[in-house]
Amino acid sequence: MRYENGVVNRDETGRDELGDGDRLPNIRVPPPGPESRRHAEQLARWEAPGINTLNADGVTCVWQSARGANVLDADGNRFIDLTAGFGVAGVGHRHPTVTRAIAAQSAQLLHGLGDAASHPLRAPLARALCRHVPIDDPQVYWAVSGADAIELAIKTSLLATGRHNIAVFDPSYHGMTLGALAASSRPRFRQPSSPHLHSHIRRAPYGCAPDQVEALLEDRTVAAVLVEPTIGREGVRLPPPGWLPALASRCRQFGSLLIVDEIFTGLGRTGKWFDIDHERVTPDLLCCGKALAGGLPIGAVVGSRALMAAWKSPGEARHTATFVAHPLACATALATLEVLEQEQIPARAARMGPLVADRIHPWPERFPSLAAIHGRGLLWGLVTREPAQARQLAHRAYHQGLLMLAGGAEGNVVQLVPPLVITERQLHTALTIIESILENDFDTGDLP
Ligand SMILES: Cc1ncc(COP(=O)(O)O)c(C=O)c1O
C-alpha cells in the first residue's frame, strides 16, 4: 500500500481481502488507522466542513474498496457493511453484473443529451422497472437522485391537480433540495434554509388516526400526500397495519394523489419489491432511487400514463437536468434489476428477515439500554433509550468490524441495513458482535 499526493494506492490486495464480499471482519489496526488519519488531514484542508464526516477528533473512516457485504478501509481493515452505503448496495457492492455493465457501457457512450436526445437503454430500463411497480399502465420520468425524484413527484402532483398544498408526515426524510427539505421534518436540516422552505405543507404525525389525515385533505387543496411507507433515515418505523390502505382511500376520497417515497425501502429492502406490496397499496406516484442503479446515481418517478400526461407540453422539458437518464446509470440500473430478478433478492430479504427478528426481538428484554426493535426484511432499527447509547453502540461495533449508522429523528436509532446479498454467516457474526457489545461492553460513561 502506498500513499502519494493524498491518494492511497492499493492494487492487488483489494480483491484478495474481500473475496466475493462474503468475508467476516478483520481489524488489523484500530480504526481509523494511520492511512485514514492522513487522508482526513487532507480532507480537513481541502473540503468544506460538514461534507466529509470528520468526527470531533478530525478523523474519519476512509473506504478504499468494497465488494458484496464487505468494505475495506484505507488501512486494510475489513468490515461487514450494515449500512449498504445508505441503502444503495442492495445487490451488494460492485456486483460483477453491475461492473460488467459499466465496462460495456463505458466503451460506447458515457454521456448523452438528457431530455433532448435519447439512448437505447432508456425504454428497456423503464419497461424493466415498471414490471415491478404496482401501478396500471405505468410510465417513468427519470431523475438524477432521490431528492430530485421527490421534487419531480411533487411537481407532477401540482401540475396534474392544479392544487397547491402537499401533506406530509412527521418524522420523515425526503432529501435535501429545497422542495424535498420542505417536506422533511428534522429541524436541524430545515433551519439553515428556513426562509426558503415553502409554506404549502401540511403535517400530521406518521401513523396518525385517519381522521387527522381527513382534516388535512377535506378542503380539497392538497395536491398530494407524500409518505415513506416505512420510515427509514428518521428511525426505522413500520406503518400501523391498515394505515397505508386507509391513507390511499382518504386520498381517493378527497382527490389528492398518493406519492410513496420508496427511495430507501424499494427494490427488495423490506422483503418485497416495494414496501407498499406488503399491504397491496396502489399509489399514484412511486419514487425510487438509491439501490436502483447498483451504486450509480439515478432517481425515478413512476405514475400512470394518464397522470404523467400532465407533463405534455410543446417546447423544452419543464423538469430535467444535465445528467438525467445518464447512460452509465441506466446501464447499471438494467443490470441491477436483472440481478434482483435472477437472484430473487427481494425474496431473499424476506427469508432473512425472520432470522434477524428471531435473534434481535428478545434484546430489549435482555438489555436495559435497548427500548425497542423495529423492522422487517433487511431494514431494522435498534432503538436505544438515549442517543448517546446509539452512538456508542455504533462506535464500538466499528472497532469490531461492523459499519452501522446511528441517528434518526431522536438520534437514538442504530440502523441495520446490510446489502441484501449478505450471507447468513456474515449476518450471524454481525448480530453476535452487536449482542456481545450490548451484553459485556456497554456503559455510557466514555462516549464518542
Ligand atoms: C426515504 C428517502 N427519500 C429521499 C431521500 C433522498 O435521496 P438522495 O439522498 O438520493 O437525494 C432519501 C435519502 O436518504 C431517503 O431515505
Structure description:
The chain has 448 residues and is an alpha/beta fold. The protein has two domains: 1-65 and 75-80, no CATH class; 96-342, 3-Layer(aba) Sandwich (Aspartate Aminotransferase, domain 2). Helices cover 36% and strands 18% of the residues. It has a seven-stranded mixed beta sheet with strand order 6-12-11-10-9-7-8, sandwiched between helices. Helix 5 packs parallel to helix 12 (327-342) and helix 9 (210-217) packs parallel to helix 10 (243-254). The longest helix is centred in the C-terminal third of the chain and has 17 residues, at 424-440. The chain is globular and about 60 Å long. The two termini are 29 Å apart. The structure holds pyridoxal-5'-phosphate (PLP). Pyridoxal-5'-phosphate (PLP) binds at residues 86, 145-147, 150, 173-175, 228, 232-233, 261, 263-264, 289.
Shape: globular
Spatial gap, N to C terminus:
29 Å
Structural class: alpha/beta
Q: What's the architecture of the largest domain in CATH terms?
A: 3-Layer(aba) Sandwich
CATH class of the largest domain: Alpha Beta
User: How many H/I helical runs?
Assistant: 16
Neighbour order of strands in the largest sheet? 6-12-11-10-9-7-8
Total beta strands: 17
Q: CATH topology of the largest domain, which one?
A: Aspartate Aminotransferase, domain 2
Helix content: 25-40%
Strand content: 15-25%
